[in-house]
Amino acid sequence: MHSSSPIALLALLSSSYTFASPLQDRAACPSGSVFAPGAISPYALIPISKTQPDKAFGSVSTGVVTPNDKCTIVNLKIPDYIDGSPTLLKICTLSFAFPTSAQASPHEVSASGPGHYTFTGYLTGSGANGETTYNKQPTPGPSPPFPPAVMLPGHTYTIADLPCGILPGSGGQTVAGALCSSDSGVSWEQTGPVVNGGCPVGFFVVVH
Q1: Cα–Cα distance, 9 to 17 (Å, whole number)
Q2: Which of 35, 56, 153, 173 could link 100 by a cystine bridge, Cβ 3.0 to 4.6 Å?
Q3: What secondary structure letter does DSSP report for 166?
Q4: pLDDT tens, 97-145?
Q5: Residue 173: which H helix or E strand, with range?
Q6: How many beta carbons lie within 10 A of that of residue 3, not counting itself?
Q7: Distance CA 56, CA 46 (A)
Q8: Nearest to 111 by CA among 119, 121, 123, 102
Q9: pLDDT tens, 153-193?
Q10: Element (H or E) spanning 184, and its range?
Q11: Torsion angle of alpha carbons 72, 103, 162, 88, nearest 10°?
Q12: Where are the domains of the chain?
C-alpha cells in the first residue's frame, strides 16, 4: 500500500478546488466602494411621505425613494474623537454606494427613472426619530453644495466632502439628510462597510 505525501495531497487539493477570495469579489464592485472597516454607516433610515405627510413610518432596514412622494432620512453618528484626535476640523466624506442588483447580491437594491435625486441636509445634532413625518422633519441645516447631478446603479457617488464640525466633548453628534427625487425611485438594503458576499450598499461616511 502506498501513502500520499502531504505535498502531493496539497497539490491535488489546490488543482481541484477554487477558493473564493474577498479581494476577488471586491474587484467586481463599483470604483470607490471598498470602504475601510472604520467607515461609518447609518444607525437609522426613516422614510417620510409627501402624500401621507403626517404618517410616521419609523426606522427601517431598507431605504426607499419614490418619485415626488417618499424620501428616506439617513441618520449617521460621527464621533468627536477618532484615535485620540478631534474630528472638528477633519473632513467627512459622505458617499452613496449604488451597485447594480447583480453586484449587490445577496443584498438588495433596485432603481428606476433617470436618476435625479436631491439630498437635503439637517442641522448637526438634529436627526430623525420614530415620530418623524414629512410635516415634522428635523431642523433644517446646510445641504451638500455640489451633489451628483445623476445617480445610476453601478457606481459609488460622493454626496459631500466637508469639514465634520463635530464639537469636542460632545460624545459624537448625529448628521442627517433626506434623499428624495421628483422623477426617480430607489430602494436599497443598507449594509455595513465590510460585507460577506456582494458589494456594500447605501450611505457611508469616511473621516480623514
Answers
A1: 12
A2: 153
A3: P
A4: 999 999 999 999 999 999 999 999 999 999 999 999 999 999 999 999 9
A5: strand 173-180
A6: 6
A7: 9
A8: 102
A9: 999 999 999 999 999 999 999 999 999 999 999 999 999 99
A10: none
A11: 90
A12: 28-207
Cell numbers describing residue 80:
468627536
d(CA 116, CA 34): 24
Strand partners, 162: 92
Q: What are phi and psi of 6, to 5 degrees?
A: -55, -35
End-to-end CA separation in angstroms for the chain: 63
Neighbouring C-alpha atoms within 13 Å toward the C-beta of 121: 16
Q: What residues pair up with 176 in beta bridges, in sequence order?
A: 75
Q: Determine the Cα–Cα distance for residues 78 and 89; give it in Å rounded to an integer.
A: 12
Query: pLDDT digit string (tens) for 41-80?
Result: 999 999 999 999 999 999 999 999 999 999 999 999 999 9
Cell 427613472, residue located: 113
